[in-house]
Design goal:
By secondary structure, the chain is α+β, with helices and mostly antiparallel strands. The chain folds into two domains: 122 residues, OB fold (Dihydrolipoamide Acetyltransferase, E2P) (Beta Barrel); 111 residues, Lamin Tail domain (Immunoglobulin-like, Sandwich), CATH 2.60.40. The chain is 19% helix and 30% strand. The chain contains four helices and 18 strands. The strands form five sheets. A five-stranded mixed beta barrel has the order 1-2-3-6-5. A four-stranded mixed β-sheet has the order 9-10-15-16, with no helix packed on it. The longest helix is centred in the N-terminal third of the chain and has 15 residues. The protein starts with a helix and ends with a strand.
Amino acid sequence: MNKRAILFFIILFLISCSPRTVSVIKVIDGDTVIISTGEKVRYIGINAPETGEPFYAEAKKENGELVLGKKIKLEFDREERDQYKRLLAYIFVGNIFVNYELLRKGLVFLYRDKDNKRYRDLLLEAEREARDNRRGLWRNFHKYPVRIKRVNYNAEGKDEENLNGEYVVLKNTSREGMNLSNFRIKDESHNVFIFPEGSYIDGEEEVVIYTGKGLTGNNRFYWNHGTPVWNNDHDTVYLIDADGSIVDLYRY
């Protein structure tokens, strides 16, 4: 291959990696928009609450105020599209890094994409600021005495054949009992376990939430999930209260 051909392919590669400038014509939610080409763009590194979940409206509104009707710059990472053919991008409006801003305001969850991680440290910093200042989703962080004590995310044998080999252990650090009705356990994606009405944890006791099927009782809860929930390489376990606020997390 001659030098001119090599230069041609280098230029093509650089063009494919270069940021694109487009306008936003519709906001879907807190992490997805439709741009002027008609394509959907999914923000890298964050997960917004879904329709009907606490903070869904707040995240969508803030996203709209940041980008709707404006020119935005799309910056791509290693993977440019997801399985749904949506563009995956970091979003910039002038000098505002939108993904970062939504995290900093506590309106979305951090999502650690194993392939797209150029701004991972910066996004972790934004999450930390929201948590330290009790913003948005973090407003009740460590308000309650219940903590995530342990997570067994890698079941013995094949995960899909040993769903109850995956489990989360919660510990009540207080001597007083506590109502867990409508509290939630959530991963970095959109898998959610909701504690049923009447759920309770006694003082200084532990409860275990298993991924698979079983009969709830004696401080044991069963998700009844049909597939493994917890990633073996990395994930985040969120404990969320009945108001939708994060009260503890366990990250690995």
